[in-house]
């Protein structure tokens, strides 16, 4: 993962979910000097319309190329409250180490595969993903070891002369760390969406909303998007 060292790095694909982590990853890649290609995937998730709107708006804000890929195989496979209307999205439990119902089986491998295909086809030098430490407590495909292993897959599975770095800059960071860095970089967080349940307003009580609100609250900043509820997640 050495694409960020020395000289002009070239082009980077950013897996753009529409959320704040991937938007911050885009800002980090831009600061490093990459020309950005934002790649968004709609796979039948509950808030896919809002996520697409946010990802495309971020691409415009970052002056980035934008491509949406639509696939239904993750929702067809099922096994996640994000894609199965018959499974409720659970309320936030920020202390749990269990794999949450929102886990989409092996999603990151699917998304990274598409991003690497795009990167190889368009002569890009890196793929950025915004996964972070509070993700991998519950999501096995957000662990640093997963990205290290996927880098090996990329190295042996692309054509000779291809050098695509998998960049996951936040794997040791908290959500608060990410928000703090993003505020420093001027990330347009008003153009991001994290809620697992609703497209407007955000519920404020699912895991994604809770971690996001907690990050802003810890920094003494107001999250710029609208919420149905804004619980205080700074209480022990």
UniProtKB/TrEMBL annotation:
Binding-site positions, Zn(2+): 195, 203, 206, 209
InterPro entries assigned: QueC (IPR018317), Rossmann-like_a/b/a_fold (IPR014729)
Keywords, comma-separated and alphabetical: ATP-binding, Ligase, Metal-binding, Nucleotide-binding, Zinc
Catalysed reaction equations from the record: 7-carboxy-7-carbaguanine + NH4(+) + 2 ATP = 7-cyano-7-carbaguanine + 2 AMP + 2 diphosphate + 2 H(+)
Matching CDD domains: QueC-like
Keyword ATP-binding: yes
Any GO molecular function: zinc ion binding
Residues where ATP binds: 16-26
Pathway stated in the Swiss-Prot or TrEMBL entry: Purine metabolism; 7-cyano-7-deazaguanine biosynthesis
Cofactor: Zn(2+)
UniProt-listed Enzyme Commission number(s): 6.3.4.20
Cofactor annotation comment: Binds 1 zinc ion per subunit.
Family: Belongs to the QueC family.
PANTHER family (UniProt xref): 7-CYANO-7-DEAZAGUANINE SYNTHASE
Function: Catalyzes the ATP-dependent conversion of 7-carboxy-7-deazaguanine (CDG) to 7-cyano-7-deazaguanine (preQ(0)).
Protein name, UniProt field: 7-cyano-7-deazaguanine synthase
Organism: Candidatus Halobonum tyrrellensis G22
Gene designation: queC
